[in-house]
Amino acid sequence: MAIPGGYRFSVPFDDVFPEGAYVLGVEQAFDWDKNGHKTPAKDVASGKLVWNVQITDPSAKGKNTGAVVKISADVQPVPPETLPGLPFRPVVFEGLTATAYEQNGRVQFSLRAKGMRAPASTAQKASGGKSAASQQQAAA
C-alpha cells in the first residue's frame, strides 16, 4: 500500500490530547530560501499563511510537554480567552490532522488544524471530556 508523502490523516482531538491542550502563544511560521532569506511560510494545499500555535500537553510523558499545531489562515488566529485561575488558555483544535515524517530514524508527527476554540465545558462534563468521534470509536 502506498500513501503519498505529506498525506494529512484526520485525527480526533481527544485521541491526540486526552487531557486537553493549553495555548502558550501564536506566531507566524517562516521558511528560508536557498539564499538564507526568511519569508512567511505558506501552506502548499491552500496557499494561506501558516501560523504556529505553541501549546503544552499535560498528558505528554517525559520532560518535553511542548508541541506545535499549525493553522493555515490569512490572518493570525486568536486564542481563546484566558480563564480565571488558570496559567494557560485551554484550547480545542478543530479539523485536526497529523502528517507522519521521519527524523533521526524515528517517526514524528506534524499537527495541523483548521481552527481553534475554547473547550465547551458543558459538553465535556456530559461526555467525560471525550468528543463524539472518540465515544463512537470506544463503543465499537
How would you describe this protein?
The chain has 140 residues and is mainly β. It has one domain. It has 3 helices and 10 strands; from the N terminus they run βαβββββββββαα. It has helices at residues 13-16, 121-127, 132-139, and strands at residues 9-10, 21-28, 30-32, 38-40, 49-56, 66-73, 89-94, 97-103, 106-113, 115-117. Residues 122-128 have low confidence and may be disordered.
List the helices and strands and how they pair.
Blueprint: E1 9-10, H1 13-16, E2 21-28, E3 30-32, E4 38-40, E5 49-56, E6 66-73, E7 89-94, E8 97-103, E9 106-113, E10 115-117, H2 121-127, H3 132-139
Parallel strand pairs: 6-9
Antiparallel strand pairs: 1-8, 2-5, 2-7, 3-4, 5-6, 7-10, 8-9
Order of SSEs: EHEEEEEEEEEHH
User: What portion of the residues fall into strands of 2 or more residues?
Assistant: 35-45%
Tally of separate helices = 3
Percentage of residues in helical conformation? 10-25%
Find the count of extended strands (DSSP E, 2+ residues).
10
Mean pLDDT: 86
Distance separating the two termini: 25 Å
Poorly predicted segments: 122-128
What general outline do the C-alpha atoms trace? Answer: globular
Largest sheet: 8 strands, mixed
Name the strands of the widest sheet in spatial order.
1-8-9-6-5-2-7-10
Category by helix and strand content: mainly beta
**Rounded Rg:** 16 Å
Q: Domains counted in the coordinates: how many?
A: 1
